[in-house]
């Protein structure tokens, strides 16, 4: 398992297009949008507020684009069918995919935090850096499970479009690019139903030194259970078809 996990992580990080989209684009958005140090958002500076928002955006992109596309490609070439003839269990295979997505998500989160500290001079105590970073990273496990689910739902040709729609849809509606307070009332209700909104709220609250809200934890936990259950069901369906 360790060898396979190491190979999967290296394979993901060697893809420069993947790194550019999941880390480079959030960095560009963050550095270009957080120049207004005198402005405030969410009760803190613009640079500090957008730090968490773009870390969430980067972590989500890394989580979604690590596991799902690889699963779809391996299904298409029959690799998953060959694995079923070996001693590797299906649970171990999916675990490796989720852990790979989680590792890449962690790298993406740390990179955004590093750029925030170095280039936008964001300052927090070590405890707040750790708390907000862990909140973003652990919350991104929801999207690791979603990525596995989408990998069994889409084909190789359609998963790229599917992931883009899911990523940008959740990110825009969930308030990662602008505060949901400026949304119309109906759109704010929709935003509060998305996992991205609650993941961002989790990061922002821990960044300010507050305890996580139970509602955010409950919604994220519910989405994690839902996506994991759907991924397991789709896997079993795919196994029967093969």
Automatic annotation (TrEMBL):
Membrane topology qualifier: Multi-pass membrane protein
InterPro entries noted in UniProt: ABC2_TM, ABC_2_transport, Nod_factor_ABC_transporter
Domain ABC-2 type transporter transmembrane, first and last residues per copy: 45-233
The organism's place on the tree of life at top rank: Bacteria
Pfam family, one: ABC2_membrane_3
Subcellular location(s) per record: Membrane
Keywords, alphabetical: Antibiotic resistance, Membrane, Transmembrane, Transmembrane helix
UniProt xrefs under PANTHER family: NODULATION PROTEIN J
Protein name, entry field: ABC transporter permease
